[in-house]
Amino acid sequence: MALATGCRARPGKSRDNKTGSWRVFKPVFDHEKCSKCGMCQTLCPEGCVHEDAEGFFNPDYDYCKGCGICAEECPKEAIAMKQEEK
Amino acid sequence: MLEITEGSHAVAEAVRLCRPQVVSAYPITPQTHIVEALADFVANGKLDAEYITVENELSALSACVGASAAGSRAYSATTSQGLMLMAEVVFNAAGMRLPIVMSIANRAMGAPLSIWNDMQDSISLRDAGWLHFYAEDNQEATDLHFLAFKVAEDPSVQLPVFVCFDGFILSHTYEPVDILTQEQADKFLPAFAPAEKLDAKDPISFGMYATPEYYLEFRYETNEAQKRAKDAIVKYGKEFGALFGRDYSAFIESYRLDDAETAIVAMGSMCGTIKDAIDEMRDDGMKVGLLRIRVFRPFPIEEVAKALTHVKRIAVLDKNVSLGSRGGATAIEVRDALYGSTIPVKGYILGLGGRDIRKKDIKEIVSLCEKGIGDQFYGLRKELI
Amino acid sequence: MAEKKKTCDLFDCGHRACGGCGASLAARLVTEAAGPETIVVSSTGCMEVFSTPYPETAWKVPWIHSLFENAAAVASGIDAALKKQGRKEKIVIMAGDGATFDIGMISISGAFERGHDFTYICYDNEAYMNTGIQRSGATPLDASTTTSPAGSQSFGNKRPKKDMPAILAAHGAPYVATASIAYPADLRQKVEKAINTKGPCYVQVHAPCCTGWGFEGEQTIAIAKLAIETGLWPNFEMVDGKVTKVKKVVRKPVTEYLKTQKRFRHLFKPKLQEAEIAAIQAIADRNAEKYGLDIKLPPRKE
Amino acid sequence: MKELRIHGRGGQGSVTAAELIAVAAFEGGVYAQAFPAFGVERRGAPVQAFVRFDNKKIRKRSQVYEPDYIIVQDSTLIKDVNVFLGVKPGGIVIVNTEKKPEFKVPDGVKLITIDATSIALKALGLPITNTTLMGAFAAASGEIQFSALENALKHRFPGELAVKNIAAAKTAYDTVKGAA
């Protein structure tokens, strides 16, 4: 890739950095307990929790750093942090 | 049309004709008349620009960075302490490849405080990545602004430019200057249309940081842009000449140098006085000539070396000093250009802090150079040392 | 079915903030509230570094970084350029507390006085996190940082936090607010309000830093809430210099907040520093008095 | 090349006089250069300004050390400053004074005294003598035409003020011409 003038870039390349590998603990979402409030999505610093067609939420493990905010803040305790198998 | 006006006012007129959309500057002697004139143009509808009355020079150039990145032609002016307060942004603007043009009414650096002229200010920032143009008279100080914007904005260059002229000696002097008409200026300098800008339709990140995997290449590329600026200066300098009769394609000017045995090398307004002195020395049978450097960055290494191959000795006059070295910046550059040659190059630091430079001084320096005496401050008041 | 809106639409995944970073959440929430027609100006700081290593920018809106101290001046130039070009994009500055409270103060003062049209967001994590947790003018009393370390002769940072909102309100800013990542709806609403208010507006966002303050990443939101619940972070809104909205709380003692973070650990171990804690409690009490933070509970029925 | 040095005090308009003399000279078809002795002088302090005239482009930038003409706006300067220093033989010195001169100019130099203050007070109501002395200079030196001076003043000053300044300059011009 040729160097851009003035150290500029268009968006997109950030996604090359798959921060999911940083994880020690992994959030596991239990849709049975989920009330679809969306707090997990709202408070995720990565912006990597996405809503599916049924209105449930799922983390994108490519980017989830496993910080655990979603699990901590879930009002229904529907997210559990499990140790990552490496 | 030739008219007699103050240097600062001629420069302000030129800037007005370049149609900057954003002017951001902070007053400082001896640049003040320029920014006052521009503020007056804006206040009276003669210049359709946003004039930002910033709180200091650092913000003056910072606002230009923002404006230029957002796609507007941006201009500032400063000198001396103001330039140094900007220093961080000076490097930044060049690294971000923003084609800002800034007038520098050259002035000494404190301490001790001095409002008077020398070139220590801009010369101290010679490594920042800006192109450096140095004017001999107000005609050049005026014309070089058009060239500056044109070269800066060339897609192959994209670098900011200092247009330097001696504070007071040029900025406050009334003399005849041919100022272009708006029609002429527009013909030479089209509207600023950068390929990239801050724009919601095409979101680009400007001024990202570079890790060691990239930084070296960015510096290399900025240096390459300096080299490409040489081609742009030749091309647009010629174009300016073809349109208006004043050709600025040369980085250097030779005055009675062809058969000279002693060459004086200098920049800026002292070159006028030097030319008068040379004429008188020539009348006395002395073979003296001048090599004037107009473009200091990119430094015309080959051109300088070529122009000086035939001389027996060289006296380089610097209105700046790289303290702790053998002399001034021009002398250091000239020695570098002549590396491997046996022609003696002697440097003379003079005129610092507004000390007047007279014809007799030039003659005395030539005489010192002929005796092989140099690499020194010239004109020191012995009684003070 | 149309694809659901993603929260990474304007601030992308793949950025290099610590897991649980309050500032990265702030960046996401602010860009969401501001929308795609926004130009972001970032000062040097942790956010700039974690979001823009060349060529991997996380920003999907136009974004510019220049220097540490000049974001407000750069934004001034953008404002002038947009005005001249007849463009309607909004300008949002994202700057840390070091850039805002300390080094950028002159440029902020100048830009606010000139009345440019932008929204200045300070993501306040209460120290210089980019360079390794040195104190700033936003560091609270007694917080231990690498340049205000607690030691045998010191309880940490010697001074309370600078009152930046009051300073900017005094500049005549039409809208000044504090917000917290713990209350995203309130934060978004304030950012939107600031953006839609003409002139220079200021929103100071409390953004806890797990690394700098010493707590586990999942606690970021909980700690931000405690700051508000103890009265140490008053969440309010000022329109034309007058406080118009305040988040009222049933206040908890400040120790509830302090004990959650390593930066205040010296106040509890090896022994409880009652006088210092009392001084911090007094700050919370003054905040409660000044902003009317306390919910007055109805007297309990017999 | 001919050179003029103007001595005055801060606030007396020496720099303006130099500029307007250059403007008038340029209108007359010669190349002119005007500049102040750049300084930080405040109101009342001694100041200098310079003008050069030539029929070709002026390149020299040093200050004026050997003037062909000297204008002294305020005769009280004579005891503080060596205002006549370097004046060329055959040169002309114009001094604003109401009294008979109590000073001596160098040999071979022509001295013209004029009560510019009274002329200025009468014409302008102010003791600002720069434009008056410009009239005297035009008459004494022949470097500038009075009509060019008149145009320069019209260009610099608005309406009534221009008329008054021109009147002051004309009185001085006629006085010097009459004495010649």
TrEMBL record, chain A:
Signal peptide: none annotated. This is Pyruvate synthase subunit PorD. It comes from the Archaea. Keywords: 4Fe-4S, Electron transport, Iron, Iron-sulfur, Metal-binding, Pyruvate, Repeat, Transport. Residues 25-54, 55-84 form the 4Fe-4S ferredoxin-type domain. Its cofactor is [4Fe-4S] cluster. PROSITE patterns: 4FE4S_FER_1, 4FE4S_FER_2. The keyword Glycoprotein does not apply. GO terms for molecular function: 4 iron, 4 sulfur cluster binding; metal ion binding; oxidoreductase activity, acting on the aldehyde or oxo group of donors, iron-sulfur protein as acceptor. The keyword Iron applies. InterPro entries: 4Fe4S_Fe-S-bd, 4Fe4S_Fe_S_CS, PorD_KorD, Pyruvate_synthase_PorD. It comes from Methanoregula formicica (strain DSM 22288 / NBRC 105244 / SMSP). Heterotetramer of one alpha, one beta, one delta and one gamma chain.
TrEMBL record, chain B:
Heterotetramer of one alpha, one beta, one delta and one gamma chain. SUPFAM superfamilies: Thiamin diphosphate-binding fold (THDP-binding), TK C-terminal domain-like. The keyword Oxidoreductase applies. It comes from Methanoregula formicica (strain DSM 22288 / NBRC 105244 / SMSP). This is 2-oxoacid:ferredoxin oxidoreductase, alpha subunit. The keyword Ribosomal protein does not apply. Keywords: Oxidoreductase. Residues 260-362 form the Pyruvate:ferredoxin oxidoreductase core domain. GO terms for biological process: carboxylic acid metabolic process; response to oxidative stress; sulfur compound biosynthetic process. It holds the Pfam family POR_N. It comes from the Archaea. Residues 14-236 form the Pyruvate flavodoxin/ferredoxin oxidoreductase pyrimidine binding domain. GO terms for molecular function: oxidoreductase activity, acting on the aldehyde or oxo group of donors. Gene3D superfamilies: 3.40.50.920, 3.40.50.970.
From TrEMBL, chain C:
Pfam families: TPP_enzyme_C. Residues 44-205 form the Thiamine pyrophosphate enzyme TPP-binding domain. One of its GO terms (molecular function) is thiamine pyrophosphate binding. It comes from the Archaea. Residues 139-156 have a biased composition (Polar residues). InterPro entries: PorB-like, THDP-binding, TPP_enzyme_TPP-bd. Keywords: Oxidoreductase. Residues 139-159 are annotated as: Disordered. The keyword Oxidoreductase applies. One of its GO terms (biological process) is organic acid metabolic process. Heterotetramer of one alpha, one beta, one delta and one gamma chain. This is 2-oxoacid:ferredoxin oxidoreductase, beta subunit. It comes from Methanoregula formicica (strain DSM 22288 / NBRC 105244 / SMSP).
Automatic annotation (TrEMBL), chain D:
Transmembrane segments: none annotated. The keyword Oxidoreductase applies. The keyword Signal does not apply. Its EC number is 1.2.7.1. Gene3D superfamilies: Pyruvate-ferredoxin oxidoreductase, PFOR, domain III. Residues 10-174 form the Pyruvate/ketoisovalerate oxidoreductase catalytic domain. Pfam families: POR. It catalyses: 2 oxidized [2Fe-2S]-[ferredoxin] + pyruvate + CoA = 2 reduced [2Fe-2S]-[ferredoxin] + acetyl-CoA + CO2 + H(+). GO terms for molecular function: pyruvate synthase activity. Keywords: Oxidoreductase, Pyruvate. InterPro entries: Oxidoreductase_gamma_subunit (IPR051626), PorC_KorC (IPR011894), Pyrv/ketoisovalerate_OxRed_cat (IPR019752), Pyrv_flavodox_OxRed_cen (IPR002869). NCBIfam families: PorC_KorC (TIGR02175), PRK08534.1 (NF006321). This is pyruvate synthase.
